[in-house]
Specification:
Length: about 300
């Protein structure tokens, strides 16, 4: 029998190539930068690592390339204790994100999908045992939509709960939205899906739910999150912390939410834990290195 995982993440793994600059190059220009840092990232891998660090039994479904970055990405997932039976090494480059961080800490990012762009519905069918045995299947939009859709359908048909974080913001077919429980978005993604500014967050979460998902969550940065499900809406304040680096806060939040839903919490209770995980992640630099352990969130 396939082992049941709390959370199965079907998604992306990227090598983040990070350089700091004092000023941005104009097109055709060259500027000096800091030493290059190569760190494991990608929304899927980040969420898998975050859920595992919180003590979850987690598996990852996706693809990495047969380049050195593929080895790096596989290694970081393995060290976190994520099951990798359904992680395929595919010929060609791994996903990479070219990240330039400016003097004020703002970043500009180019994502090259690489192996993430080669995840297919057939991959999901081959991993159907893992996906179907999950309590919660976590999805994002850094792999092609046909694979996202097949994963959502496979999970739902097997009785697993589907959580979709539609990031980077993009269109989501109604058939996929209808399977989400919840849809998890930040304010920018909410505005994209609602076709305009969110306004009152609770009304926004309810409006998102009206698009089809069984439940919805909007994360609000330092202001926490708001949830909407059949029982109504709930505002969940975030703990006050000194923010050092918000990279990965959304991934820490979503991973923690998925884990607590898998353990049987209702949506508002899971979100109350998730805001603590998100807040912990902004207190440290980076994405994966900033994710808290279960011991840090008693
Ligand atoms: P990112 O893209 O930086 O990973 P995001 O835009 O997807 O994040 P946010 O809404 O900014 O998502 O943050 C997710 C969660 O992290 C929030 O709901 C909150 O719980 C926590 N968080 C983020 N920023 C702060 C902050 N400054 N103080 C406390 N908690 C924070």
């Amino acid at each position: 029998m396939t082992e049941q995982h709390d959370v199965v993440v079907v998604g992306s793994a990227n090598a983040d190539l990070v350089v700091r600059v004092e000023r941005w190059p104009a097109p055709g220009h060259t500027v000096p930068g800091s030493d290059l840092a190569v760190v494991p990232g990608g929304k899927g891998a980040n969420q898998a690592v975050a859920a595992a660090r919180l003590g979850g039994r987690v598996a990852f479904v996706g693809r990495v390339g047969d380049d050195p970055y593929g080895t790096l990405l596989r290694g970081s997932l393995e060290r976190a204790g994520v099951a990798l039976d359904a992680l395929v090494t595919t010929p060609g480059p791994s996903g990479t994100a070219l990240i330039t961080v400016g003097p004020e800490g703002e970043s500009s990012i180019i994502v090259s999908p690489g192996a993430n762009g080669r995840v297919t519905p057939d991959d999901i069918d081959r991993a159907a045992g893992v996906v179907g045995a999950a309590r919660v299947v976590s999805l994002q939009l850094e792999i092609p939509m046909p694979a996202v859709r097949r994963a959502a359908e496979t999970a739902a048909a097997a009785g697993a709960r589907v959580v979709l974080n539609p990031s980077p913001a993009g269109p989501v077919p109604l058939a996929v939205l209808a399977l989400c429980d919840p849809l998890v978005v930040n304010e920018h993604e909410a505005a994209y899906l609602l076709d305009g500014a969110v306004g009152d967050p609770a009304a926004g979460a309810a409006a998102l739910r009206a698009l089809g998902p069984r439940s919805a969550v909007i994360t609000l940065g330092a202001a926490g999150a708001v949830t909407a499900d059949a029982t109504g809406t709930a505002r969940i304040p975030a703990p006050r912390v000194r923010a050092v680096d918000t990279t990965g806060a959304g991934d820490a939040f979503t991973a923690a939410l998925c884990l607590r839903l898998a353990r049987g919490d209702d949506l508002a209770a899971a979100a109350r834990f998730a805001v603590r995980a998100g807040a912990a992640a902004v207190r440290r630099e980076g994405a994966q290195p900033s994710f808290p352990t279960a011991a840090e969130l008693p």
